Request: fold
Amino acid sequence: MQYKWIALSVTTVGTLMAGIDTRIVIVGLPTVARALGADVESIVWVSQSYLLASTVGLLLIGRITDIVGRVRIYNLGFAVFTVGSALASVSYSASHLICSRIVQGLGAAMLLTNSAAILTDAAPAKQLGTILGINQIAFRVGSVAGLTLSGVIIGLYGWRALFYLNIPIGIFGTLWAHFRLKEIAVKDEQKNIDWIGFVTFSCGLTLVLLAITLLSYGVAEALPGLSMLAVGVLLLLGFIRVEIRSSAPLLDLQLFRIREFAAGNIAQLLNALAWLGMMLLVSFYMQIVLDFTPMQTGVGLLPLEFAFVVAGPLSGMLSDKYGPRLFATLGLCISSAAFFWLSGMTLSTAYSEMVVPLVLLGTGSGMFVSPNISSIMHAVPANRRGVASAFRTTMFNVGGTASAGLAILLITTAMPHAVFSNLLRSANPAALGQLPELEFVNGFKVAAFVLAWINTLAIVPSLLRGHVVKNADEITRSS
Reply:
């Protein structure tokens, strides 16, 4: 068996598991809120903490990976993720669950940073789009399937079972990766690590994301929220300055001179910023307005999942032959059409009217993912693939982490934060009356419309990435 297929099978297990846990608690957030007595801020951070932890460490992990090799860090990631899952399954409070999710997120960062880099090392150029497509579709399939799985699992076994699921898979994955993967990476001879860059990036990003959460609380928290946002932005600007001057930067800013790398990452950031927020909105809509149970909500999202699974691999194979720009951009166009469609939902919208836009959203997202990743990873030098993969994943996670907070912030423009919190925690939202539901729908429409425009903006950098022509193992870029 050729090593590329061994690498694909091992890394796909890791990315699938990490993808599932990116979304698996979203549908169950109201259930977890009631079980742990948590308010809307705490319960949203059960999801956010995982994404934040899997984001802030990515560049450092990517740098370490380029120095010591991919496989060792990947194997460690499986073990850390499994421990985090075990801790989450026995959580007794929202804060305990958030801390456990942070451990999970760190393990996921090690898995996600290295999976694409391991495959890029192992696969020939003419097959890389297909192989990366399968692997990254596994992540997105996992993230989408997590929405359905969570509803079914909660309905049958309770919310703690969401995390029991990972323990046997994690143990198997840790052992399999240890015995099957081998190190073939080109290591970076420069051994220094930019710790100042890591601190400024991590602290800046954390403050920005916390500020978005604070701003959703209302006018009372506006001043501390804006202050935190300003400090976070200054730290991120400081990070860029540190990287420019560093002899061993955490992020090699020279990579941004490569058009495919820069444009692909910007498109991915904008798409992620819109996508997770919309998934959160749709999940809340089904449970608050349609009065779906978590299981019904999970099943209700199946049309999106099926469309994604079909479109993803097909788009990856076609992009290997014709280049990634056409399919990535077309996928974003289809997704935007679905976003705008969903932004028109009202208090009387039935589930049957949501099926077509959900299918379009799954199709567009599936078409975008693998061509975009292939374009990014093909464009960078071999000894920078670790940090390039880390930055790519960082952009996805930054968008996803900010997206949930942004969605909540936009919803609260149309309804008081306290009312939304009570609506989310209520075992019977309909008993609170139609006014809170009407206010939620108004907030939903505002949030969905803004997210639709954010996704539409991603079309611009996707078009500007240039046309990539593949000829066996040689890639020539031209605009």
Remarks:
- The longest strand covers residues 467-471.
